[in-house]
Amino acid sequence: MKENMGQIIKRLRKERNLTQEELAEQLNISAQAISKWENGTSLPDISQVVPLANYFGVSTDTLFSREHKNDENVKSLIQAIYNDAGCNYTVRFEKLKALLSEYPADLNILDAIVRCGTFLISPNQSNSQIFLDTVHSAELYIRNSKNIGDVVRMYANKIDVYARAGRYAEAEQLAKELKMPVISSEMYLAHISEKSENYSEEIRHEQESIALLLGYIAGELERLAVAYRNNGELEKAIEVNLVNMNLPYAFHQEGAFHAPLFNWYSISGFEAAFELVELKRYEQAIELLERIFDYGEIQCHLSSNCAQIDSPVLDKIDLTLFHGELKLSDYLWKITSPEFEPLNKYERFQSLLERYKEYT
Fold first, then answer.
1. Which domains does the chain have, with CATH numbers?
2. Taking the model in full, what pTM does it have?
């Protein structure tokens, strides 16, 4: 059964956790007018329909009656667009926009549009329709989402879109306005457990939070190393990458098998090996690659098994969740990169290549 306009307005208002008074304030009208719309005794003036649709991030056609969307159906439609082998990113972007016109302000579609648009945007499209549509979709998502984590993620995506478009001053201003610290639900769950004197649960949540933060730190270290490398400071890049590689050692018992705590280390490891080869420090590069292979085997084991480790800090949690499903062939393919060609004359490197072939 289709909703009438009043029911649609009421649903959209409640989806955003707004009172009638709050909505009225946003539209500069009386709460009594909102009440009349919702109970069907009156309808908005035509001059009020567009502001109302814009506020909710929907089309005017939506206000003039359409049935509520089926979330799973929308997800399947998005997946079908992504699965279409004939769809490049430009075609995919247009298809997603067309889908949004059928399901206005749907968060799944908005998210897909932003992700797709991000791949298409470059400095020569700083004011293109793709840029404008991507930014608009990000803003609609931020306005309509109730999940603070998703809001922060989308805000970061919006900054990235401006930066990719070469609009650096605007991107910097957006970044400066983002004053929220790094947070996770685990931090607050730990705080709640403390207040309720459930200290065992507090320990578990704190450890989960630390593991998440370690992943964040590892990612930032990897980006710092890349920045040094792009700036021509290879020695500094190597130092940062090696710090990233050594970070897990601080979280294990002395003499324990030092399993990686997150996936980022492999990126830093290979980057450091590339840099060592560039500096002709071949033996050191091979030694690092051997270590990457050892870690890779542990990593893949942890992705499919209970990932308890011998750690004075992280002894109450299962680290499996922090390791994606990995195949060694996917994980270690960079060993075949042309950057390592100078290492082919070394027997130890040839052994690594043979070791890699076992997993392909």
1. 5-63 (1.10.260.40), 71-177 (1.25.40), 186-357 (1.25.40)
2. 0.65
